[in-house]
Amino acid sequence: MHLKLFDKGVLGIGDGHRVLVSQRFVGRNPAAREHVTALAGRPLIGPQPGIRPVAAPHRAWHFSQVFKGAARPNAA
């Protein structure tokens, strides 16, 4: 589910490798909305040992070319 949301521009990776959630995301049911919006600002787990983190230019490209709209404020 997360990869599909990333590909559709609902999720992104922000500074400090924290999850971005688009303000345009509405979800189809309350549970989906609650679970996805709760990701806003949470740190990513990983990368796995021996794998480099996602480079800043790649994060910037995804944000400018794929991510939809502005990011939601961090979840409480």
Description:
With about 80 residues, this protein is α+β, with helices and mostly antiparallel strands. It has one domain (about 1-65). Helices cover about 30% and strands about 10% of the residues. It is built from three helices and two strands. Strands 1-2 form a two-stranded antiparallel sheet. It is globular. The two termini are about 20 Å apart. The mean pLDDT is about 90.
List the helices and strands and how they pair.
Blueprint: H1 2-7, E1 11-13, E2 19-21, H2 30-37, H3 56-65
Antiparallel strand pairs: 1-2
Quick structural gist:
The protein is an alpha+beta fold and 76 residues long. The protein has helices spanning 2-7, 30-37, 56-65; strands spanning 11-13, 19-21. The chain has 3 helices and 2 strands, in the order H-E-E-H-H.
Specify Rg, calculated over alpha carbons: 12 Å
Backbone shape: globular
Number of strands: 2
Largest sheet: 2 strands, antiparallel
Spatially, the strands of the biggest sheet line up as: 1-2
Instruction: Encode the helix/strand succession as letters.
Output: HEEHH
Q: Mean of residue pLDDT?
A: 91
Whole-number total of structural domains: 1
Proportion in helices: 25-40%
Q: How many H/I helical runs?
A: 3
Distance, first to last CA = 22 Å
How much strand content do the residues show? 5-15%
Quaternary structure of the protein: single chain
Question: Given the helix and strand composition, which structural class is it?
Answer: alpha+beta
Unreliable spans are none
